Amino acid sequence: MLWDRAFKALAVVASCCASVADAITYTPLKPPSYPLAVRSPYLSAWIPGNDVASLPSHNAQFWEGNKLIWSVIARVDGVAYNLFGVAFPPNGTQSAVVTEAVYTSSHTIFTVTAGSRNFTLDFFSPVSPKNYLRQSLPFSYLTVTVAAGDSSSVQIYSDIDASWTGQPGHARWSFSRNASTSVYEIQAVNTATFSENNQGQALWGSAVYASRPTDSSLLSSASGPSLSTRESFINGGSLTDTQDEWSSTGVVAFAHDLGTTTDASAVTFAIGHARKESIDFLGQTQTGYYRARYPEVVGAVSHFLDDYEDANAESVKFDQLIQDTGVYSYGNKDYSDILALSVRQVYGGIELTIPSESLDVKEVRAFIKEISSDGNINTVDVIYATFPIFYVLSPEFLKLLLTPVFEYMGSSAYTKLYAVHELGANYPNATGHPANGEEMPIEESGNMIILTYAYQIATGKTDLAETYSAQLKQFADYLFQNGLYPASQLSLNDALGALANQTNLAVKAAVGLATYGALSGQSNYTAAGKDFAGKIWTDHLGTDVNGTHFLIQYGEEPWFLVYNHYPDLLFNLDTFPGEAYNATAQFYPTVRKTDGVPLDGAISWGQTNWQSFVAATVRGPTRNLFIDDLHRYISNGLNSAPFSDRYWVEAGNGFSAGQEYAFRARPTLGSHFALAALTGADILFSE
């Protein structure tokens, strides 16, 4: 009987939870995880889609999954309602009811009901890749709006704690004002510059929280133990404007009193993670681009709040552009849903920097983190996987990312004939390729050529190719001498291990040579690339005997997903004949598993990067198959990590088909723009 009662009680709870979840409108869909504040590898806050139904009691998470304390509480006519992130609700509080969840390319918006009033929580991470100042500011917005309603009194509270510093058990905080802007900074104590904790959080710099009063609100603040600070607001609707010493249970908090109002009113908070020393680039410290204008945190975050209206207006146009791009390039909004969810994750993995000493904006560089896989910095094949989004939206980023790689390879520290794999094993330390680091000679040599040409085609500028012409020719010559019969080595998909005569590497060499021919105007390289392609395809060196599919190795099954064809089509090189693309379009549907096409015939997982590249190389029903599978994957409700680009396409190994596998929050989702890139380059408006 006891078990029966327990089972019935659990059934009631489950039913209630299901009804709450069912009552929420998810637009355009419920993703695995919603981006909240995603602006850099160290400002990367998310909430799983399946947690949204209980948003008032669920914490934000860093990309790795560890909790971040960030709460919002509102009072309506003296009754306190938890709106977001209050895992242990204080006595006397109630939970708001979530009614809607929306994501766009730059906004995540939740609508909740608290008593007689409706509130929206707008988590806005600007994406402005042609405005380097705006893009480089290491902050994100949270705007809480109370909708028009009855004549109730409304107050809004929000806090954060030291979990944002990477060392929640040992920190310090400070409070300052800049005109009307109030700013808290929280710092880890006794940690090293350029160091991370085990979750990938920065252990140096400052977690920042800021707000300012509006025309309709009075702002108060306080720092102190979380329970007493929250209770102060819950009981009185304001804070004490006192600042306690840091404690392990402490929070920094703001409260806005909107008074009695029937009108819609909004208050905005800025959250961020700022580091004066951003990147160690070959012993030269880099700092955020924004510091040329705003060298101090308080001035930078004040400007960020000043910039809200312009940034938001830009985001409206940007979000519509992404929506339209998806529909135009594919034909329906499913592709737009994928693009919109990918954007913040890509640009949130990149930082724009300038030299710390000179603060010279003419020396701007970009650094990208290989988040979650191994933490490398400016990994060339990660840039390659990401490049379609840059080709479409911000091709100058290709130059900014490639320049430090070229600079390193041109130094005495690098002496090899082929291109380097990355600039350092551990972001943010771009201190050079480690002696025991991964080597991908053909892969990266081809990638450097292809990426340089992508920049040139998209911008019409030849400066990158001209500056590094000697290196590019060296890489092309290496491909010619070593690319048709690759020695045992790693490819872009390093999970395969080192293999000799990898077909995909030979394809990369063929396309790389043809690309170099177009880049340099030297037709002999174009001819060499086509000669390689003829042997691989026409002579069946890299295919089965009937030419129905490409093999993972010459003469060796299984088949392999050939994603290195993509630049051939993007650049209209005609390296491989149309028959090769027709054959793959016919073949891939025959080997699709339950939830998608795997990377090769011997495994049960696929990667959205290469599925997206291949979707751009095929047409008709096969293209639809790839896009439909990707859309189904992000909306199936099985996952919780920030958009993993690797997932199981067939059940096994304790996983269900459609479940994410290993990776999370990687910026490589720029690959999802591969199809969009076929319709045009550099389409983003300039501010």
Entry keywords:
687 residues, alpha+beta, Beta-galactosidase, Chain A, domain 5, 9-stranded mixed sheet, 6-stranded mixed sheet, 18 helices, 24% strand, globular, GtaA_N, Glutaminase
Topology, please?
Blueprint (H helix, E strand, L loop, with lengths): L1 H21 L2 E3 L5 E8 L2 E6 L11 E3 L4 E2 L1 E7 L2 E6 L8 E3 L1 E7 L3 E8 L2 E8 L7 H5 L2 E8 L5 E9 L10 E8 L2 E8 L17 E6 L6 E8 H11 L13 E12 L3 E10 L4 E3 L2 E5 L8 H10 L1 H23 L2 H15 L2 E6 L9 E4 L11 H14 L2 H14 L19 E2 L10 H19 L3 H5 L1 H14 L20 H18 L2 H16 L12 E3 L2 E4 L6 H5 L7 H10 L17 E3 H10 L2 H16 L10 E3 L25 H4 L10
Parallel strand pairs: 1-9, 7-8, 20-24
Antiparallel strand pairs: 2-3, 3-4, 4-5, 6-7, 6-13, 9-10, 10-11, 11-12, 12-19, 13-18, 14-15, 15-16, 16-19, 17-18, 20-21, 21-22, 22-23, 25-26, 27-28
Helix pairs in contact: 5-6, 6-17, 7-8, 7-9, 8-9, 9-11, 9-12, 11-12, 12-13, 16-17
Protein name: Glutaminase
InterPro entries: Glutaminase_GtaA (IPR052743), GtaA_central (IPR032514), GtaA_N (IPR033433)
Keywords: Signal
Low-confidence sequence ranges: 1-21
State the distance separating the first and last CA atoms: 68 Å
Radius of gyration in whole Å, from Cα? 26 Å
User: How many β-strand runs?
Assistant: 28
Strand arrangement within the widest β-sheet reads 1-9-10-11-12-19-16-15-14
- As for the CATH topology of the domain at 27-312, it is Beta-galactosidase, Chain A, domain 5
What is the overall shape? globular
Helical content (DSSP H or I, runs of 4+)? 25-40%
CATH class of the domain at 27-312: Mainly Beta
